[in-house]
């Protein structure tokens, strides 16, 4: 049983019924050993397949935190909790083999993980440490709209990197919330102008997915870029 969750993860942000938790992924042997006891057989096998100790650490700490958070939200023991994947790979939770009425999404980068949970509706979260990218120009060309590219290309150095990760996390959160992954044309999902100009939050619709209204929110800090996207009830 994890006895001191606040030393490992904590509530980072509340947005109505949505709760976002920050997971500390720095090296800590005691936490990693304890976290491993929370994983089921399939998850342990996946953990063993990671070639890098760093990847193992990030996976086990994030996964155990997710299990503890979902167990608390659903009021079920860890042994009753399972996971399956939807058609396009997005996971969902099971309790005693039956789909649970909860939405969640997980992201991690460097020493930071985020877990978002909601009682209903699709949501996605993304976090990125602002580390330099060798292929930044190719990424800008491949995933951003003409307006977004123009804004990014007007900057350089740290300013460009900071805005790149801000745009990137907003888009990633939206794609993860929608749940269709690579089947979506990411460049066509243009970030609303008010957010490109600095607004922290925007409610919007997209031509690719006109049936849904989304709320996008920038959650970045000095340590990392982060964003969340979630459905807005009609």
Rounded to the nearest angstrom, the radius of gyration is 18 Å
Q: Which fold name is given in CATH as the topology of the largest domain?
A: Ribosomal Protein L22, Chain A
Number of domains: 2
Count of strand segments: 11
CATH architecture of the largest domain: Alpha-Beta Complex
Low-pLDDT runs: 1-5
The rounded distance between the terminal residues' Cα atoms is 41 Å
The multimeric state of the shown protein is single chain
In the CATH hierarchy, what is the superfamily of the largest domain?
4'-phosphopantetheinyl transferase domain
Element string (H = helix, E = strand): EEHHHEEEEEEHHHHEEE
- Classified by CATH, the class of the largest domain is Alpha Beta
Query: What portion of the residues fall into strands of 2 or more residues?
Result: 25-35%
**Helix count, per DSSP?**
7
The dominant shape is globular
Mean pLDDT: 92
Return the structural class: alpha+beta
Proportion of residues in helical segments: 25-40%
Question: In order across it, which strands form the biggest sheet?
Answer: 1-2-7-6
Largest sheet: 4 strands, antiparallel
What would your notes on this structure say?
With 234 residues, the protein is α+β, with helices and mostly antiparallel strands. The protein folds into two domains: 5-120, 4'-phosphopantetheinyl transferase domain (Ribosomal Protein L22, Chain A); 126-231, 4'-phosphopantetheinyl transferase domain (Ribosomal Protein L22, Chain A, Alpha-Beta Complex). Helices cover 35% and strands 29% of the residues. The chain has helices spanning 29-36, 41-49, 53-74, 136-143, 146-153, 157-178, 193-196; strands at residues 9-15, 18-24, 81-85, 91-95, 98-99, 103-109, 112-118, 123-128, 201-206, 209-218, 225-231. It has a four-stranded antiparallel β-sheet, with helices on one face. The chain is globular and about 50 Å long.
